[in-house]
Amino acid sequence: MSANPHHNVEGDIDFVAESKSEEFQELRRTHRSFVFPMAIFFLVWYFAYVLLADYFHDFMSIKVLGNINMGIFLGLLQFVSTFAITAAYVSFSNKKLDPKATKIRERLENQGADQ
Amino acid sequence: MNNLTILAAAAEKTTVGNPLVNIAIFVAFVGVTLVIVLRASKNNKTAADYYAGGRSFTGTQNGTAIAGDYLSAASFLGIVGAIAINGYDGFLYSIGFLVAWLVALLLVAELLRNTGKFTMADVLSFRLRQRPVRIAAAISTLAVCVFYLLAQMAGAGALVSLLLGIDSRAGQSLVIVIVGALMILYVLIGGMKGTTWVQIIKACLLIAGALIMTIWTLAMFGFNFSELLGKAAEVAGNPEILNPGMQYGKSETSKLDFISLALALVLGTAGLPHVLMRFYTVPTAKEARKSVVWAIWLIGAFYLFTLVLGFGAGALIGPDKIKAAPGGVNSAAPLLAYELGGTLLLGLISAVAFATILAVVAGLTITAAASFAHDVYASVISKGKSTPEKEMKVARRTVLVIGVFAIAGGIGAQGQNVAFLVALAFAVAASANLPTILYSLFWKGFKTRGAVWSMYGGLGSAILLIIFSPVFSGAETSMIPSIDISIFPLANPGIVSIPLAFLLGWLGSITDPGTEDPKKAAEMEVRSLTGVGAEKAVDH
Which segments cross the bilayer (chain A) (predicted)? Predict the structure, then answer.
């Protein structure tokens, strides 16, 4: 293993002060403002689908296109929404989260290395 | 070679295709992966090498390995067969298995990578009292791994009868021993690096094989999916096969059972210890995110293939013929492969199915061994005074013990109905692990008592409910049909055990009189989001 300049940085950082800093609170807000609503959305959408498939057979048996019925159509839509949420999260993280997180991390690591 | 001729002779009676071809392709897979494992093992010096592959895999490599770890033989043979026979209801599984990855992506993967080292317990005990939390986390890790492992090993025996035509108990046991011995060899020598490469190769083979079969099947229907569905319904002689309800719509109990299963599937994945451990094999949280993204694409594509293959098997072979074949439901995919590409494609798919079992059991074994050596031995038994060398020695011994146990369990479980074990593993992961993971990552008020209550409560209630369910006793399909202690009507405990574990986590925390270190809580929060002080990749 190589000597890692950042390895024991944590001991020197005042994490309590850092966690209360405006910069960190902003990162925390940004993170939660995306992941919490999105998690609630996909869970509600998934269970709505489960309940439809479980209790509303007639609705799910309606033909949409040829032999493709509502059940298969909505099931495939679950795949589409999963892929879409994944792509949206990646783009959000790259644009909004990573720059903020990197800034704080680099500041803290430099601060630790200076001491 | 003697064994091969015996196997071949036994096979002529019941199987389609040529067992020798199946075996030859599987032996080639074992040969190639063994060479790679041996080469990968040269750099296994530190604990980070052995448990986490030196944290030097890329997001793409790890994502592929995650797919290889996650897509078990059950999800390939099982889902294709379930769709072929139960139609739409088989498809419901794959949706839960896929959507579940969003929990891992949004809420768990990156934060876990930033705060942990080798195991799930590292994260859970970060700011709580080490000893009780680590022990509880290790017990639930071992429980999930053992349930999953037994299901895979028992599945190996069933697969043998199907693909090699070995019906005798001794023959099946021999194959379980071979699979178990290979698994021990891979994990012992290759550690996490070797295991990862086996999983990557297997994932490529499995997904490529499924893709070829999917295109082939669609081509037979002029790439018209609707026509394929129509033919499946016609062959089944039942248009209901395209609609939900054939499996879960039978009664109000079975409907409720399905909700319970859906809950465990969607919340269990992000609590599976062998999945969580894979996030430590990449250098940064950003690579952990890339891993999950790549895994979601691969797993999603694969489940779309199984939809085509399931209805394709229904259309081209027919549910009655599948049910009558040796291996029953599980034979849908191999029979379809034979129908499409004859002996060679069947051989390829059979070998892939074996490779799948091998890769999954290897991943489970290294996870269980790491948890025992790192959480129980190093942190609890020797109270942090152990050296990394000693810890790795313990890990290797644990691999041996678990390997032997898996072989014995696999042989013992032959002919038993153990399909419920996979669902139980998901239910335990969703009840014992996920609530504590989420609480400790997102709720500052979470305390040691909450973690301990939630983990033991989730684990205990899931297992107890299974014991008192028709899965265990009281019905013809039960594990022990001769007695009847079934008082809980559902086969899936999740609907009770998951909310209970969340409740216990909250209740335990607000009643815990102990104060926890606010410094540790702040450190965990800052580290989880920024990655400061996260474990770095090993430089060789």
Answer: 34-52, 72-92
Q: Which of B27-31, B285-289, B312-316 has the lowest mean pLDDT?
A: B27-31
Task: For domain B2-411, give the CATH superfamily.
Answer: Sodium/glucose cotransporter (1.20.1730.10)
- B248: which chain A residues are within 8 Å (Cβ-Cβ)? 54
Global ipTM: 0.90
pLDDT at A6: 42
Query: Which residue in A86, A92, A104, A108 has the most chain B C-beta atoms within 10 A of its own C-beta, making it the best mutation to test that interface?
Result: A86
Nearest Cα of chain A lies from the Cα of B258 at a distance, in angstroms, of 7
Say which of A15, A54, A67 has its CB closest to residue B226: A67
| Token duo for residue B130 | 């080490």
Measured distance CA(B427)–CA(B491) in Å, rounded: 11
Distances (CA, A) of A27 to A101, A102, B249, B525: 7, 10, 46, 11
pLDDT (average), residues B315-325: 89
B-interface mutation test, from A10, A105, A111, most B Cβ less than 10 A away: A105
Domain ranges of chain B: 2-411
Closest CA to B184 of B195, B174, B175, B196: B195
Please tell me the distance in Å from A105's CA to the nearest CA on chain B: 5
Q: Mean pLDDT over residues B154-165, rounded?
A: 73
Point out which residues pair with A65 in neighbouring strands. Answer: A68
pLDDT at A10: 55
